[in-house]
Amino acid sequence: MIDSLLSADFGSAPTNIPAMVLGLLIAFAGGHAIAWVYMLTHSGLSYSRTFVNSLVVIPTVVSLVMMVLSNNLVTAFGLMAVFAIVRFRNILRDTLDTTYILSVIVVGMAAGTLKYSTALIGCMITIGVFLYLWATNFGSRQRYDMIINLHWGRPITELPDLKSLLFRHSMKTICASQRSHEGYEGTDLSYRLLLRDPDRMDELLMELRGMRGVSRVTGLKAEEESEV
Q1: What is the pLDDT of residues 106-139, one digit of tens each?
Q2: Against a cut of 0.85, is the pTM above it?
Q3: In what order do the strands lie in the sheet with 146-152?
Q4: Which fold has domain 146-221?
Q5: With contact defined as beta carbons under 8 Å apart, do 141 and 225 qualify?
Q6: What is the rounded distance in angstroms from the CA atom of residue 217 to the CA atom of residue 147?
Q7: Which value, to the nearest 10 degrees, does the dihedral of the CA atoms of residues 138, 141, 145, 146 take?
């Protein structure tokens, strides 16, 4: 009975069951690997468990679709008609999410067309690219680590004392704002710092608060510049 079931596929060519199973398993494994990389490297607020699940399911489904098409033009047009009726409306918040979707689709297409070596090698290289971008933090721009606001109560001519303290802790110091006006005692200053050691931020704040003439010290950790 099982033999009759497996041989009842009356397509244009007989179905190679072992090749079909192997293709589906390769697509499933490739989707799993890419999904694991996505879980490891993802950052931000748009993480979704259902999206991760889709990275596993999509290549398997696409692989099956490619096997069903099997260079059959009539079936291909029929599939296009089905997708025209069933519309998928899901807005991806992150451009990289779209890249993950495209990757698993291609892996599924390669497995579905029985190009197993292409599916495996392509999947491994794609995973390597994703891991490289994550490990090197490629594309991020962070020109400073910390923003410091303070009130300077001493004469402006004595500012080099403050700059000397900031220089000991930072590789780059930019005075973003310096405000003083008639009738107002002292000067309000705002600095952007690229710290030598970001872990010593609290030590810098303590030294500033203990310095003569410095008051109202506030520190804000700067986040990396990202697209909004």
Answers
A1: 787 777 777 788 788 878 888 888 888 788 766 5
A2: no
A3: 170-179, 187-195, 146-152, 214-221
A4: Alpha-Beta Plaits (3.30.70)
A5: yes
A6: 11
A7: -150
- HEC string of the chain equals CHHHHHCCCCCCCCCCHHHHHHHHHHHHHHHHHHHHHHHHHCCCCCCCHHHHHHHHHHHHHHHHHHHHHCCCHHHHHHHHHHHHHCCCCCCCCCHHHHHHHHHHHHHHHHHHCCCHHHHHHHHHHHHHHHHHHHHHCCCCECCCCEEEEEEECCCHHHHHHHHHHHHHHEEEEEEEEEECCCCCCCEEEEEEEEECCHHHHHHHHHHHHCCCCEEEEEEEECCCECCC
pLDDT in tens, 135-181: 876 656 557 788 889 998 888 888 888 888 888 888 888 888 888 77
Domain boundaries, the chain: 2-136, 146-221
CA 118, 124, 125, 129 torsion-angle sign: positive
Quickly count: other Cβ atoms within 10 Å of residue 21's Cβ: 10
